[in-house]
Specification:
Length: 468
């Protein structure tokens, strides 16, 4: 029996839908836009960036008339397809940030932690039932060469005022048991765990209560000047507004000149059926912290409030020409790999079935962290490039956009992160070739004690790369 046949059986009966989205939401369907309308602010995108933008704008000015357009349903794209990690980092981790903005890292960390706390405060303020937990993230070494790297990371974090708790093999086993774990560090303050769909639905419900007009199944097709304002066109109507905020993630931006800065990368996830208490006793994981391993091609996984494991990562699939199609949301070849690695990590769970399989596109940029800008004379703002860490950073991105639209000089807009853009990706076929070479280089590094080949070292010197 081949490995593929063996592991395919573990998810043969799985629902081909994100686990997070496979239940009823707390508000009804919002009708598509069907006529021309006007407002003060039009928000394009019903994921976290768009929802936070609408909510923050309404909180700041309750009389502001806001329209939010979503091409599918609220949270139906990356927002409802991730692993449930809500990170404080605005820079895709300390190491990446320190390489790019070393002088501003203490301030970036401070603002990131404050942003994470602000999310928790909003969850409490609006009574959002989303399994919000400040349990932190446990990063795990599964290869001997990774242990020294984790120790170095703990020491590096201390130079920026961050405390990471290093755990040796025995200490890790006291928290969660796997034969693959050699060491780890626990970031208790820098991560929260959350049910992302329920968080997004709660934000949408709060927006509706405050008077935001939401239109689902409404694709924005064009953005243009309109007198002193802007107009967003859709198939059955348009919205004229003083300002527009774009939270379109991996989808092609309405501002065409920024499209080369982002590529859509598909990430894939499995969710188990609920695991019995006696099996959990063999694993531990009572803290319900988020778990991830320390490889270049890494897994991330979380324990849900109904005792499933959500298990994703490792593969990062780019489709030539920025391919974005519904058929890419399922990829059995990757599910086989994920299932294989799952049972290697937790052999105690042999016989467990997966209840859900899914994938989705991440908006990846060459510096792995969000970037921001304006268009049409400052009347349009955008935030993009979260590279898999947008659950938390999206609130920060929303605030930067609102600052820019207001012409405000704030602690956020003064950051180099908010002022500079990444290096754009080259056109095809160079983009495909570069991404392919980078993926091969990362795989080679994982198989050779983390040693980066000439291609990766060249990208490091240029300050660019590819990640999910």
């Amino acid at each position: 029996m081949t490995a593929r046949t063996r592991f395919a059986a573990t998810y043969a009966d799985a629902a081909r839908i994100p686990f997070w989205l496979d239940r009823a939401r707390p508000f009804g369907e919002q009708a598509p836009l069907s006529c021309d309308t006007t407002c003060d602010l039009v928000v394009v995108g019903g994921g976290f960036t768009g929802l936070w933008t609408a909510l923050e704008a309404k909180e700041a000015d309750p009389g502001r008339d806001i329209v939010l357009l979503e091409q599918g349903e609220i949270a139906s794209a990356a927002t409802g397809r991730n692993g449930g990690f809500c990170m404080a980092s605005l820079t895709h981790g300390l190491s990446n940030g320190a390489e790019r903005w070393p002088d501003q890292m203490p301030e970036l960390e401070r603002q990131g932690l404050a942003n994470l706390a602000g999310i928790g405060e909003a969850v409490q303020r609006y009574g959002i039932d989303c399994d919000w937990r400040r349990s932190g993230e446990l990063l795990l070494a599964t290869q001997p060469w990774q242990v020294a790297g984790l120790r170095e990371a703990v020491e590096h974090a201390a130079t920026f005022g961050r405390t990471l708790r290093f755990l040796d093999r025995d200490q890790v086993a006291q928290e969660v048991r796997s034969p693959t774990y050699l060491a780890g560090f626990w970031d208790l303050e820098g991560a929260a765990m959350v049910d992302p769909a329920r968080l997004a639905w709660g934000l949408a419900a709060a927006c509706l209560r405050l008077g935001v007009r939401i239109h689902e199944r409404t694709s924005a097709t064009a953005l243009e000047n309109d007198g002193a304002g802007v107009r967003v066109r859709t198939a059955r109507g348009s919205v004229r507004a003083a300002h527009a905020a774009l939270g379109t993630n991996a989808f092609p931006s309405l501002v065409r000149r920024i499209r080369p800065f982002v590529v859509p990368v598909y990430d894939y996830v499995l969710a188990t059926a609920p695991i019995p208490a006696e099996r959990w006793a063999e694993i531990g994981w009572a803290s319900r912290a988020g778990l991830a391993d320390a490889g270049n091609r890494f897994h991330y996984y979380s324990r849900t409030d109904d005792d499933r494991i959500v298990w994703g990562g490792f593969d990062a699939i780019y489709h030539y020409g920025n391919g974005l199609r519904p058929e890419h949301d399922q990829r059995d070849a990757t599910f086989d790999v994920l299932a294989d690695h799952f049972f290697t990590t937790f052999p105690q769970l042999e016989g467990t079935r997966f209840s859900h399989t899914w994938g989705g596109a991440i908006d990846t940029c060459t510096r792995f962290s969000p970037f921001f800008g304006t268009a049409l004379g400052g009347r349009v703002a955008y935030a993009l490039g979260y590279t898999g860490m947008g659950v938390g950073a999206s609130r920060f991105g929303a605030r930067v956009m609102l600052d820019r639209l207001a012409g405000a000089d704030t602690e956020r807009t003064r950051l180099a992160l908010a002022q500079r853009k990444p290096v754009p990706f080259p056109p095809e076929p160079l983009k495909w070739a570069g991404i392919t070479l980078t993926k091969r280089g990362l795989a080679h590094a994982d198989e050779h004690e983390g040693k980066r080949n000439l291609w990766l070292r060249s990208l490091d010197r240029l300050g660019v790369g590819f990640d999910s």
